[in-house]
Amino acid sequence: MVRNPELPRNMYDSKAGVLDVKVEIDKEKICDIEMQVKDLKNIDKRSTYYMTKLLSDELKKSEKYTQVKNTIVINLLNFEFYKRNSYRSIAHMKFEKTRENEFVDMGYIKEEEVATNDLEMHFLEIPKFVKKNPGARTKLEQWLWLIAGRREKLKMAKKENKEIKKAIDIIDEMSMDEKEWELYESRRLAIMDYNTGIEEAKEEGYNKRKRRRI
User: Where does 1-138 have alpha helices with state H?
Assistant: First the structure.
């Protein structure tokens, strides 16, 4: 169930290129989905904030720790952020490695690594996904190709996944709705502005280096 189905204007920041959707899954998990266009160099901190805010809101509603839903934040990034050889990175709250001077022989052959399964962060870096250029066999691949907007891959995805076809139909319908089209255009312009800014910064840097050599 989508918690903010109407996507109020403050849920989309055209300057930062951020789209925020909150979803409840099977009444057991609460999920915050963030789509971010620009690399503001702070998605790690933003994701932590999103998670704590989501958890805090749930605590206010239930008022019992045992009733708090699993909290998941999914970050869909139109840029590379982490120095990792994977387009999908999943983070949990983990324990540090046991220090030798604090070791107590309790007989555990393998120690627990995850402190809690109630907190989870996903980072999906679209440029890395496109670079890998996988097929459209899994649901994750199919949805990521939809987000990436690669039509040649969407043909495959539509055959494999009826939900993808439904999503494409909805997108087509959105293009006929003035308000939805405005939201789409805002996001598209944010991407264009960001890409233009990157190119201008590169050109400016190149010209500065060139002038220094003269």
Answer: 43-62, 126-132
In a domain, 17, yes or no: yes
Number of H helices, E strands in the chain: 6, 6
Residue 88 falls inside a structural domain: yes
Q: Judge whether 31 and 74 are in contact, CB under 8 Å.
A: yes
pLDDT tens string 109-150: 999 999 988 899 999 999 999 999 999 889 999 999 988 888
193's tokens: 């502005």
From 57-71, 100-114, 144-158, 200-214, the region with the lowest mean pLDDT:
200-214
Three-class DSSP category at 142: helix
Total domain count, the chain: 1
CA distances (Å), origin 212, targets 22, 136, 207, 208: 50, 49, 9, 6
Give the E-state strand segments of 50-209 in sequence order: 70-77, 88-94, 114-125
